[in-house]
Amino acid sequence: ITADSERSGEANLQAELQMFRAQWMFELAPGVSSSGLEPLPCRASSREPGLKSVDARGKQEIAKEEKAKELFLKAVEEEQNGALYEAIKFYRLAMQLVPDIEFKITYTRSPDGDGVGKRCVEDSKEDDKMADLLTDFQQQLTLQESSVKLCQPEVYVNQTHISALPMEVLMYIFRWVVSSDLDLRSLEQLSLVCRGFYICARDPEIWHQVCLKIWGRSCNKLVPYASWRDMFLERPRVRFDGVYVSKTKYIRQGEQSLDGFYRAWHQVEYYRYLRFFPDGQVMMLTTPEDPQSIVPRLRTKNTRTDAILLGHYRLSQETDNQTKVFAVIMKKKEEKPVDYHKYRYFRRVPAQETDHSFHVGLQLCSSGRQRFNKLVWIHHSCHITCRSTGETAVTTFDIDKMYTPLFFARVKSFTAYSEKPL
Fold first, then answer.
1. What is the pLDDT of residues 373-383, one digit of tens each?
2. I need a labelling partner for 322 at 20 to 30 A (CA). Which of 28, 254, 283, 293 fits?
3. What are the CA-CA distances from residue 87 to residues 78, 91, 98, 108, 159 (Å)?
């Protein structure tokens, strides 16, 4: 009996030793964790302690991984806040616990990019709030008093407050703010005063009239835009609160010197200006003078600059989903009195009278952060019409590097005051 018991004890010891060796070899193998071990077959009494040790090791690995995740996310937060040294310390601690912790984390937001994902979610929430802001303001004003007033004086004053004016008068004031120049920037600034002004500035009738002035009959349908204001903001259009400017430079060869030793070279520099008006008129000027001296003269159409070309333009939405601007411009007609005394003693040979007009085609684009601020040349031609015969000669210019794009520059003085309401 004693010999049998000693043999069974040696067998159990050998089985436990084999299980320990197998465990050790599996732990040393790459990519195998202790939670994935399977012990060798043995009796139930010898297997229970091995399973308990495997479970303990698995829990220890899970706790270690959770701690590494916590340290890694802390490092990401410190990096986004600009504390790079603190972030490096937490990164090092996390990777000492679990070397490949970076690939075991499921990010709820982008780790790099300074919280871009979070900002996108916040921006979408802000858009939803802005969409409901008009409704909220209207409800608040309705619940305040039975006699609804758009605004209330912040402090008591003896003078009559603007809130005492009827709604019709207030809306007429708002139309003067927009004016015939379509100064919608001032309207948006006025909407920041209070909730009542915000409601007035979102009046659909104002925005509908603005869209009609810009696009005419082509904007009868609101679809696919949510409102007339959205149409004004999203649909391509030319801008009226400034001027489109381009600058062109080139080198021109001069005449040879008298002694023939050298030839002069000239650097030519000139500007093109385009100013659009809401009533469909456009002004164009090509001059070597810089914008500081020219832009103030372009405020009104009744300018005294002789070289300015006046005309009309139209917007065209092509099938390729590109918006183009076509304009026909010509020099201002000036009637000169006939000097009969000059031709008193000899017969005058009448010269053929002609009319010159320029046809311009431009593509409307957006550049950078601003919208509809770039015009690219696609066509330029000169039409000379003889008044007596009605014949027209057309000269088309090649669009080369001399036709640089025109970029928009806002001019505050163009909307400094209103001449008439919307």
1. 889 999 999 98
2. 283
3. 5, 6, 16, 19, 60
